[in-house]
Amino acid sequence: MTDETPSTYGTQRKAAARNRVAIIEAAHELFADNPLVPLSEVAKRAGVGAGTLYRHFPTREDLILAAYQHDIERLTVAADEVLTRHSSAKAAFVEWFETLSAYIRIKHGLGDALHSAAAQEMINASWGPAIAAVTKLVDACVAEGTIAPGHDPADIIMLMSFLWRVPNNDDGVTQGRRLIAAVFSGLKESPQPFVAQA
């Protein structure tokens, strides 16, 4: 026999789900500042005990992967929200890619955890939703005339990858905005096959 009623069990499950989300959100914030932050600090920020954290995430790698997956999922569904919030599709496009670049900078600081087979499988699985999100942003920019029709969203992701290579400071932001302007100058023209000059 057990003292747990269905309602008690449901309450416990809801609390566990809340704790998991709180831990992941705390990990996202703290990893952004310091990828080597102790997990005890993550637990403290989340408002849970160390035991609760380790029940959800037995290893540091488990937590890193969960935080990364959470960030990517949140970003890939954010295209509609960003487009709704901005009157300019171009501004929404820029915000979305700058947010993506911030996530990728965090990823680069997390070391070997994101080079495992499980991590690569997760990253590969995120490619399709990322392409779908960029397609929405590109279509909106085409509709407002800031991008010419015919550009491949996968090509545009490759073009925008400079954003996670510029320095993570004010100079990097300024340089990134200059490069974004250059990208949009090119995207205003319809894509053409490259022909080398003799």
Automatic annotation (TrEMBL):
Alphabetical keyword list: DNA-binding, Transcription, Transcription regulation
Keyword flag Secreted: no
One Pfam family this sequence matches: TetR_C_43
The HTH tetR-type domain, residue ranges: 17-75
Lineage: superkingdom: Bacteria
SUPFAM superfamilies: Homeodomain-like, Tetracyclin repressor-like, C-terminal domain
InterPro entries given in the database record: Homeodomain-like_sf, HTH-type_TetR-like_transc_reg, HTH_TetR, Tet_transcr_reg_TetR-rel_C_sf, TetR_SbtR-like_C
Keyword Kinase: no
UniProt xrefs under Gene3D superfamilies: Tetracycline Repressor, domain 2
Residue ranges crossing the lipid bilayer per the database entry: none
DNA-binding region: 38-57
UniProt name for this protein: TetR/AcrR family transcriptional regulator
Organism, scientific name: Lentzea rhizosphaerae
